[in-house]
Amino acid sequence: MGTACLSALVILGSLLLLLVIVLAAISLMWQLFARGSGWSALAQRYPADAGFVGPTLTGQTVQVGMVRYRRCVTVGIHPDGLYLAAQPGLPLLPRNPALQIPWSEFHHAQETRLYWRRAEQLVVGAPRVASITFLFELYQRFERYLTQL
Fold first, then answer.
1. Which residues sit opposite 68 in a β-bridge?
2. For the chain, is the Cβ count within 10 Å smaller at the N or the C terminus?
């Protein structure tokens, strides 16, 4: 094997190693965001037992705690509760556990802004587990189920 071929293999191996390191770092960040935002706490208390059956809205922007999940959340609206599933931008990365939150667990709606647009922030759980902020257009789609607010 010539030096040019050996150099090409070293470069290719280095690039592959760099790709693995970057994917691992992104995966770690995604998991840290889930913990820091409150998504993990929500998943422990409100796990979705199975996939959502019914129409869903994909590519939604939702803020959980201080972390914004931009255009990567699937939302399912059902008379029993709200289904949320977040998928990172890269299919190789692990997903956050899907959530199925009963309507009775949403409390204290407050108008706010998300990306300079009108939004509603809701507290989930009593005592509080996390807060979730929805763009107003999305919030309007399920507002009728929030009879306890």
1. 63
2. N
